[in-house]
Design goal:
It contains 13 helices and 11 strands. The protein is an alpha/beta fold. The strands form 2 sheets. Strands 3-2-1-4-9-6-10-8-7 form a 9-stranded mixed sheet, with helices on both faces. A two-stranded antiparallel ribbon has the order 5-11. α6 packs antiparallel against α10 and α11 packs across α12. The protein is globular, with a radius of gyration of 20 Å.
């Protein structure tokens, strides 16, 4: 099975991710493929020296972005490397695991055995991680085996036009009216995430590619959910999805890949400068990404590094504020991230 890892400028998390794979995946026939969008060469070189079996694919904008990062330019091109992800998926195994660089395995898993069952059960997505949020799982399942539970979606509507009107039309007054009339609710909307995942899941290749139809070079979860609804609506037979009987992965909440979409009104913090500090400490073996594993990175060590750097745009005080704001985004809709 191919393991695709989206990566951008956080080699310390990527190191933890890869190391957790070798610690926990009980298979010899896996291919670890890094889909990198700009991590500077010296960091990737350290990773390839440490893990010679990994393969690194680079985006079309890799050179531009990595050069900007090396030069300390925070205004890095924000274009998302969707073509890289889709091209890698097209060439991947029929079932592949997709994760981000800040995901890591926390317990042993036999992917080959799971893959064989997925093929016989015709599963479209198998979630390995849902942040302890039961709202992202179905309320009922049809059956279970030793590895995972199987369900068919039970959604409010699979009519694409109704879904688009009720769940994608974001003008406030319309949403308020739909909520009052009991068409829209957050719980009802979150049920659609049972048939969709951004990462932390094993995808059937054909289904994954369907999710990205008409993407227009932008990440639009609403569009991907609509594509999932269209897919279900086009099928006459039952479609099966699944989730593992236990969560096999965790994700980090102590940094972001960039400043984009992670700015908070009362926080003055530059994530690019933060990542440079931690990247360099990791490169020089001052920061051990596996310390505190299987929990998140060692926050006390991060504070120590930030204090020592004396960088006014990446202070330990503002970093802790940023982390609090970031975590609250997930806590607000039911995730358990501690």
């Amino acid at each position: 099975m191919d393991l695709l890892i989206k990566s951008f400028n956080r080699p310390y998390y990527l190191d933890r991710c890869i190391q957790s794979i070798y610690l926990n995946v009980r298979d010899n026939d896996i291919n670890i493929i890094i889909l990198d969008d700009g991590t500077p060469k010296k960091y990737l070189d350290k990773l390839t020296n440490k893990y010679p079996a990994i393969k690194i694919l680079k985006s079309d904008l890799y050179s531009e972005k990595s050069k900007a990062i090396v030069n300390g330019d925070s205004n890095v091109n924000s274009k998302i490397p969707i073509d890289l992800w889709i091209n890698a998926a097209e060439k991947a195994s029929n079932y592949f695991l997709l994760i981000e660089d800040d995901f890591w395995f926390t317990k042993p898993i036999h992917l080959k055995k799971i893959r064989l069952n997925l093929e016989s059960d015709k599963i479209k997505i198998l979630k390995l991680c849902w942040l302890g949020n039961s709202n992202l799982l179905p309320k009922k399942t049809e059956r279970s085996n030793n590895e995972y539970s199987i369900f068919t979606p039970n959604l409010y509507t699979t009519n694409p036009y109704l879904f688009n009107l009720i769940f994608r039309f974001h003008r406030f007054k319309i949403r308020k009216i739909l909520t009052f009339l009991n068409f829209y609710s957050l719980d009802r909307f979150l049920e659609y995430y049972t048939i969709y995942s951004t990462s932390g899941a094993i995808f059937k290749k054909k289904y994954f590619l369907n999710l990205w139809r008409n993407h227009n070079n932008s990440v639009d979860e609403g569009l991907q959910l609509l594509n999932a609804v269209k897919y279900l609506n086009s099928k006459k037979k039952k479609q099966y999805f699944g989730f593992t009987n236990t969560e096999y992965m965790r994700t980090g909440f102590l940094s972001s890949a960039s400043n984009q979409n992670k700015k908070y009104d009362k926080v003055n913090f530059n994530m690019f400068n933060f990542n440079k500090i931690i990247n360099e400490a990791w490169l020089n073996d001052i920061f051990d990404a596996m310390e505190n594993y299987p929990n998140d990175l060692n926050s006390l060590k991060i504070e120590e590094l930030l204090v020592a750097s004396n960088n006014f745009s990446a202070t330990s005080t503002e970093w802790k504020k940023w982390v609090s704001e970031f975590k609250n985004q997930y806590l607000s809709f039911g995730c358990n991230i501690d």
